[in-house]
Sequence to fold (284 residues):
Amino acid sequence: MANALEGVVLLLVTGSIFFFTLVIVGVFSKAYEQYQERYVVKSMNDLSDMFLFIDPRQMLVLNIASMCLLGILAWLLLNPLVAVGATIFGFFLPMMLVKHYRRRRIKKFNTQLVDALQAMANAFKAGLTFPQAIETVSKEGTPPLCQEFSLFVKEVKLGVPLEEALVNMGKRVGSDDLELVVVSTNIARQLGGNMAEMFETISATIRERFRLEGKIDALTAQGKLQGWVVAAMPALIGMVINYMRPDLMQPMLNHLFGYVLVTAIVVMELMGVFLIRRIVNINI
Fold:
């Protein structure tokens, strides 16, 4: 009787573990599919728009490698609490780098667009058509502007309507300045207008906006620097105290209360940096 009861209990426990494992596997599979759909695919689209073609598996391997590398280094050099934070940060680091590179590319494109619009205005005055003007600028320009304009010229030569090719280029680049050019060009082509004068006006407007942004950046540079100094001060003081009096810092770093305290400090520091950057970040 006792053996039969033990067998039933063992069977129930085994069945529970089996079904629990199935649920866990299903949850992780669903999370992995959502991760691929939201982050990996988006990162691949961003990289493709920047003429960087990487296989999705390579992007996933890069995420995992970054997560493991930062986590292991933090575990060996620092402590388990920092290792957890470094692992989470390493998981999102490749996507953050992709976004940073895309912002830099858009900024460089906007800078090149000012001179390109002026060159296109001169081409219109010389009697060239719109596709011919863009092709001339694409041959004389440098990446990323020449890449985008060359792709636009190829789409037009393959039979894509000019308005549709302009819209595709605006979506691909993601620049507000280029979007203004696309909308203005399509309206001017439909209703008529002086294209050379329009491009000169847009070029002057963008150039004036750059001047105002530079002035605002100069005025807010002190606030940004103060934010970074204030944010780095607790960490620097902690490192100095740990170097001079390790007997005072080690008990806190080896206790659960110390982990909670350090986590709270890091969270408040990040919130402070975020708020300061939002205050001094002025969009025109």
